[in-house]
Each structure stands twice: as structure tokens, then as C-alpha cells.
Amino acid sequence: MTINELQDEVIDEFECLDDWMDRYQLIVDYANELKKKPFPEEDKTDTNLIDGCQSKVWFTARIENGNMILRGDSDALLVKGIVALLLHVLSEHTPQEILDADLYFIDRIGLREHLSPTRTNGIVAMLKQIKMYALALSNR
Fold first, then answer.
1. Domain range spanning residue 116?
2. CA quadruple 97, 79, 35, 107: dihedral positive or negative?
3. How many domains is the chain built from?
4. b/e per residue 6-25 (b: at least 16 CB within 10 A)
5. DSSP sequence for 14-56
6. pLDDT over threshold 70, residue 140
7. Which residues are known to be catalytic?
8. What is the pLDDT of residues 63-118, one digit of tens each?
9. Domain with 108 in it: what CATH number?
């Protein structure tokens, strides 16, 4: 699936839920799915830590068959769910697709307006790091 198709899939999931408590639960469900693929403890280093996040958030990226494989984790459950959403939409695409992506799903599901300013800044920091990885890996 393309990045836009995945974004639309996420939007559809969230639009089915009217109550924000249900939407938060869906984010937690994404976090619980991420727990099934544990982030290696040896990758929880300062190098992989995202600056600008209220919680601790780690990302790694590598190229496999031309696609960028992203891994991530957080020490906070809600943030782990946001990490899982970003991985769901962006991982396994080429670095150029990630660089060219218009990530509209974050606003369309209402995430920015229902998170604290520091959490919203954290999303911006995560996206910036993912784009930096994509830029670095696109030159390989």
C-alpha cells in the first residue's frame, strides 16, 4: 500500500469513533501491537533518542530491498501508540516516498488538537528525525 492509502486507512479507523476516549483507546491498541515486536534494549541509546519529546522516544532506520525499515519505541504508552501509527504509515517505503509524503492523517484524525503542546512538539520532532533518516538513507 502507498503512504496515502495507509493514511486513509488510519483516518477511516478513527472516523468510526466519535468519542475521544475511544480514539485514545485505539492509539493504545496500536501501542499494544508494537509491544509484540519489542524494540531491542541495545538500541535504546542516546544516539537513537529523539530530542524534543516529553517522553523518551527512540527510532532506528535501515534500508532493506530499497525500502526504509523503521523501528521505534517509547517509555509512555500513549506516545508508543503514536510511534506505532507513524511506523504503520511510513515504514517499508522508499526514502524518497517518505521525503515526498504529505502526512495529513495526523491533523485529519484530530491528534494535534487533542494532545498537549509538548506532545504535539514531540510528533514534530519524531517526523523530523524520520525525514532525516530518509534523507541520509536516500544517498546510499
1. 3-138
2. negative
3. 1
4. bbeebeeebeeeeeeeebee
5. HHT--SHHHHHHHHHHHHHHHHTSPPPGGG-SGGGBPTT-SS-
6. no
7. 53
8. 999 999 999 999 999 999 999 999 999 999 999 999 999 999 999 998 888 877 77
9. 3.90.1010.10
